[in-house]
Amino acid sequence: MIGQATAEGIADGSVTLAFRRWDRPRVRPGGTQRTGAGVVRFDTVDPVDPATLTEDDAARAGVSSLAALLKLLDRRDGERVYRMAVSFAGADPRVELRERSELSDDDRRAVDRRLDRLDAARGTPWTRQVLALIAERPGVRAPDLAASLGRETQPFKIDVRKLKELGLTHSLAVGYEISPRGRAYLG
Fold first, then answer.
1. Interacting residues of 139 by C-beta distance below 8 A, sequence separation 6+
2. Which residue among 41, 56, 134, 165 is the one 20 to 30 A from 15 at the CA level?
3. Across the chain, what does the average pLDDT equal?
């Protein structure tokens, strides 16, 4: 939902508003979203009449002009326009987690338990297979990795996100890579 440039603007304080056209709000006041620049908080979420928007609103949203903002909003389907006050809530906690290159015995057991639960929920072991595949083939496109396992791309990506939540992988511009924490776990 939030692009990299906008996320960076929120992180540095130059962007304080976001606008979206939706049928109903997809975020809640107080909710957060992780982005490439860190965690963004949605301080308010209110419907707004697009006719009341101003050049200042556009500038606060990091958009070059009101005309450009309205054009962006018109490209989307949705019954209403929502104005969200946004703020930087801090660094993405997964970044610190994935950068840890040493695991204690307790950390290793905790990762084992989480991976075992993910495997059990699926009814088949997949977590360590996907970790090994990413370790062997860093930077390979998700569709190619998925196909090598005989899987569909979207469910594969969802699984990789689960491993990313544990700090074991991270995304590259193309494909994925095992994080330092992931290497420590596999090592």
1. 172, 174, 175, 176, 177
2. 165
3. 94
Single-letter amino acid, residue 14: S
Convert the pLDDT of each residue in 63-92 to its tens digit.
999 999 999 999 988 999 999 999 999 988
Quickly state the pLDDT bin for 141 (edges 50, 70, 90).
very high
Q: Which residues, other chains included, contact 18 with Cβ-Cβ below 8 Å and sequence gap of 6+?
A: 2, 6, 61, 83, 84, 86
pLDDT score for 187: 87
How far from chain centre, in Å, is Cα 177?
A: 16
How many C-beta atoms lie closer than 10 Å to residue 148's C-beta?
Answer: 13
Element (H, E) at 186: helix 180-186
3-state secondary structure of 99: helix
CB atoms within 10 A of CB 174: 11
- SS3 call for 170: strand
In angstroms, the Cα distances linking 71 to 68, 90, 103, 126, 150 are 5, 31, 50, 44, 41
Structure confidence by residue, pLDDT tens digits, 34-54: 888 899 999 999 999 999 999
Q: How many residues does the chain have?
A: 187
